Amino acid sequence: MINYDRGNNAQTAKKPEQRHVHEVLGSVIVAEPQTDPHNHRFAGVSGEAIPLPNGNHVHKLTLRTDFYEEHFHEICGVSGEAIRVGDRHVHFVKAFTSVNDGHCHKFRVAALINNPIGE
Predict the structure, then answer these.
(1) Rounded to an integer, what distance in angstroms lies between the CA atom of residue 35 and that of residue 51?
(2) Residues 43-58 pLDDT 10s
(3) Where along the chain do its domains lie?
(4) pTM higher than the cut 0.85
(5) Residue (of 75, 48, 52, 53) closest to 64 by Cα position
(6) Three-class secondary structure of residue 74 per DSSP
(7) pLDDT tens-place string over residues 3-40
(8) DSSP strand pairing (60-64 vs 106-110)
(9) Phi and psi dihedrals of 32, rounded to 5?
(10) Cα 27 to the chain's mean position, in Å?
């Protein structure tokens, strides 16, 4: 086990710098409209910011939807680059869920604003 204490002990590892994350919530688009129309909801937190060479950044998403008739879907994707909103930013993601129960769903979501109560 690594001890992340801030002391000067030779046994102590330096704590890695944590990058910001975003809250993400939404609903996937309805699938199987003719036979079993349904959608799913999701909520979670993105992965930490992944710096890009151009000075911007993206985030990975790895979430699960809620259950509907004993199935759920994985949501995996990478956001677009930061979109400025005043002195903060958001990210947009458009992708597909995993295939479960013989279908997948499209989804598109804007991550919530970063650090909404910070300075």
Answers:
(1) 43
(2) 999 999 999 999 999 9
(3) 23-110
(4) no
(5) 75
(6) strand
(7) 445 555 555 566 678 889 999 999 999 999 999 999 99
(8) unpaired
(9) 50, 55
(10) 13
